[in-house]
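Lecture notes, unit on protein representations.

Consider one protein chain, 251 amino acids long.
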Amino acid sequence: MSTAVSAHDVTVIYEDFKALDGVSIAVDRGKSYGLVGESGSGKSTLLRAIAGLAPVASGRLEVNGRTLAPRRRDKAFYRDVQMVFQDPYGSLHPRQTIDRLLQEPLAIHGLSDAEARIARALDEVGLGTGFRFRYSHQLSGGQRQRVAIARALIVEPSILLLDEPTSALDASVQAEVLNLLEQIQRDRGLTFLMVSHDLGVVTHMCDQLAVMRSGKVVERLSAADLVAGRIDAEYTRNLMVASKGFVRTSA
């Protein structure tokens, strides 16, 4: 199986702070890979480095076999890789209609058939064309995140970077959005790289995961191994205990 996204000893430094310290991961094409860890562990920084939003001091990033420059990304990259951010309230322009928000990436990438693409994107995320001329402030948090997903999908990427895509939503809405993402991945054969502090979310969504702490990967394992308790790092065990639904009782 080919690799869609890989990081090789990637280091990111902000002034004197080392946000990533020699991080390496490999994400298989068409699979979901999770990055977990407490706040400040560096998991979101890795997504931002891939997207060209964080400065790479050393190491190498590759997407679909192409080595990325330390910071610069071109249109071809953003056609292939899209990011869904944590906050559906902050990621959508409050003075633009949903139609305008979805038209913008089509115009940037010079894509035609806007009407058909917008209708398909809204339908795919379960909203429908009735939402097309509403503003984001007229929508619930879950609906806004669906619009953010539609905006990412409309240019037909092969990879989605998901930065805590449900953590700002109520629990019932979280489940709906996660199920939606699962369905979209199956339908489109997408590759997901997902950041979450919630081990339950990651084991539900992802095939493989990396546990991060203080800018480093402390353990790599499969979701099945995590659920079964086949763990090497004590830090991962502590995360299991701290994460709701993972408290293990002795027989």
